[in-house]
Amino acid sequence: MKKTYYYKDELNDDFAGTDISRKDVKPNYRYIKKNPVWHFFAFILYRFIATPLVSLFQLIVYGLSIKNTKVLRGYRRKGYFLYGNHTLSAGDAFTPSLVAFPKKAYLIANADAVSIPVVGTIVEMLGGMPIPVDYRALKNFNDAVDLRAKKGDVVTIYPEAHIWPYYTNIRPYKDVSFKYPAKTNKPVFCFTSTFQKRFLSNRPRVTVYVDGPFFPDESKTVKENQKYLRDKVYDTMVMRSKNSTVEYVSYIKITDEAALAE
């Protein structure tokens, strides 16, 4: 039977299914590591262990294929911001590295990702950048994201923020995460995960479409460009989401009327 999720709020409901005791990111948290030994082991882990394993995992579990990566040509050395729809629990941690290959993709994630001992260190080595809850740590976080952009790195953001497994539409999202390209004048690309019937499997295969680049408008303010870039990415994702041809998980909105009826 098809799995069904019931939701009330597209912006805040989450179906990740994790139960991690989150540790707050401290104001002195080091997003940019300077230890050469740390960088050496991070390089080995990312290039020679994680990348081949991730490629195999995505192929076997999701039948993943990525389309239109040609749009990234000419931008790999300059760096860019990469936005995607948040639809795969494990897959979403790995897809950006395959889209951005051979560049390393840094991923902005909830603090849950670095809250587990040892695993948290691995996540950091693979490019995880935890979002702080403590407002005093936000400046450190924002400075790190800006520095990554200026260094020509790839920074990945899931603007929907919460995971809805196998959701075939695009949820509404705010423009706050688009302040980074608006401030740094970096190009923006997006990738949209879509779902199609898979041979000999109930689980659909995943086809990812890459689109862009989208640039801030020099005639607009930073705040105006946040909305401008958000709308460009959102409209493109909505267009690409129409390539989904199967619904593996059903999502039903609970209204006040429906609650009263029960």
Strand composition percent: 15-25%
Spatial separation of the terminal alpha carbons: 23 Å
As for the CATH topology, it is Glycerol-3-phosphate (1)-acyltransferase
Q: Quaternary state, please? A: single chain
| Helix/strand structural class | alpha/beta
Low-confidence stretches: none
Level-1 CATH class name: Alpha Beta
Would you list the SSEs in sequence order as H and E?
EHEEHEHEHEHEEHEH
Helical proportion, percent range: 25-40%
* Average pLDDT metric: 88
Task: Characterize the structure shown.
It is a single chain. The protein has 262 residues and is α/β, with parallel strands linked by helices. Helix content is 34%, strand content 21%. It is built from seven helices and nine strands. The longest helix has 27 residues. The chain is globular and about 50 Å long. The mean pLDDT is 88.
Topology overview:
Elements: E1 3-7, H1 36-62, E2 65-67, E3 80-84, H2 91-100, E4 105-109, H3 119-125, E5 128-130, H4 138-150, E6 154-157, H5 179-184, E7 188-198, E8 201-214, H6 222-241, E9 249-253, H7 256-261
Parallel strand pairs: 1-9, 2-8, 3-6, 3-7, 4-5, 4-6
Antiparallel strand pairs: 7-8
Helix pairs in contact: 1-2
